Amino acid sequence: MSEWFAACSAGLRLQARQFGKARVIICLTVVEALTFLFLVSLFGLTGSKAPTAIIMQDHGALAQSFVTDLRNDHHSFRLEVMGATEAKQLLDRGDLVAIITIPADFSSTVRSGHTAAISVAVDNVDADLTDDIQRAVPAAIETFGVQHHFGGIRVAPAEHDLIGHDTAYIPYLVVSALALDALVVAGALAATAMAGEWENRTLVQWRLAPASMTGVLIGKLITVVAVSTVAVWMAALLVFFGYGVHPHSLPGALSALVLCTVIFAAIGACVGNLLRKTLPVATLFFGLALPLYIDSGSLEPERFDGGWLWFVAHLTPVYAAVGVLQSAINGLKVTPEPVAVDLGILLLWAVAAVAVAHSILQRARRAQ
Amino acid sequence: MRSIRTLTRIDLSVWRRTPWVVAAALVPPLGMAVLVAMLTVAVSRQPVALVVQDHSPQAEAMADIIRSDTDTYALQQTSLAGARTLLARQQVCAIIVIPKGFGRDLASANAKLDLTLNNIDYDFSDDIRRSISRSVSEYDAPQLGVALARSGTSATVPNPYRVDIDEHDLRQTNVDFLHYQVVPVLLLLIINVGMLSSAVMASRDRERGTDRVLTLAPVSPMARIAGRLVAGMAVTFGVLIPTTAILVWTHQIAPPGGHWLAVFGILALTTLFSVSLGIFLGSSIKRSSTVALSGVIVASYLFFLGGGFTTIAFLPNWLRDVSQIVPTRYAIDSLRQALFYPTLLGVVHNLIVVGGFALLTLGASVLMVRKVAR
Question: Most buried among B44, B123, B136, B261, using CB within 10 Å?
Answer without folding.
Answer: B136
